[in-house]
Specification:
The chain is of the alpha/beta class and 336 residues long. It has helices spanning 46-61, 85-94, 105-114, 153-166, 174-183, 189-197, 204-212, 215-223, 227-248, 268-278, 301-312, 319-326; strands spanning 7-13, 17-24, 29-36, 68-75, 100-104, 119-124, 128-133, 139-141, 255-261, 291-294. The chain is globular and about 60 Å long.
Amino acid sequence: MNNRDNIVIGIDGGGSYTRVTVADFTGQILAQVRKGGTNRLHNIQAEEHLRTGILDALSAAGRQLEHVASITAALAGIDQPGDEKWAMEVLHELGISTHGQVVNDTLAAHRSIFLGRPGIVAIGGTGSLIFGINEEGRMVRNDDFAHYARVAARFITYETVYAIISGYYEEADLPLVGLMLQHLGCSSTQELAELALRGYGVDKRSQNRMLGDMAHLITEAADTGIPLAVNICNEAARQTAVGIRLIGATFRASEILVSFSGSCITSPYMKKAVLAQLKSGSGIKNETDPEFVYVEQRLPSDIGAVMMAYEAVGRRTTDSMMNKLGQPYNINKLEI
């Protein structure tokens, strides 16, 4: 197999969209495409998006399926053994399953952010998950503690709608209340209640997506000091910080790297609120009370999946390869 034939594919698939990247073994990115979501919990066309994403990316790169040496599909919703079966079936249909692995999307996010170092990443976009790899290489998720942080976009909106319908708002919240009613096509809270009772007139997946798309209205309102938005965002931030601290309890270090990924948790207010909850001396007491050091995500998660694809066939991602992978993102040197 010559250099032209040695290519890998990295995929980052969430509930809203999927990014597919094709790269060669020098780290040169040959093609990138974006498709709809590949989380089966949120998108009924997940299989089609995965299949066409791979084929379209290969076509854009001028390569064929037989040129694929390794593929890593990092998909949201791959939480339990067996969850990956449907995606592996897609790879099998394409004839590349023997070269492929399907993992949860947080692994690729972690890889792209920390570049193999220990750390904790909190995901808050269409879905929510907190994932860490400690100094011993142990992988821990917040749901391993039976914990869930309601920082996914749809939950921010649901909580706001519940407060509006039940009357838990004050005069200072009226601008946000009016904006929410207008966005949902309602003239009153009573009309909003009826709309919610009818499932917003759409199926459950569409309902979650519609409300998730409104979360930015609440996080932006929190940034301006609207009390209702501040309270809802602060509670989501508290839950996220609890999840991060739970995973942090499995680390030995006094400093723990942490990062965020996803449209909701990386919004200015949410990012600030979670970091405030994690700040050393914030009143949280335990045996170690580590300092959490924030690391910005500079590479997208599909590049993390590309690095995992290299590693799956025994190729180490060299400094030269990393520099090439970072070029499209104006990153000359990757370091923390």
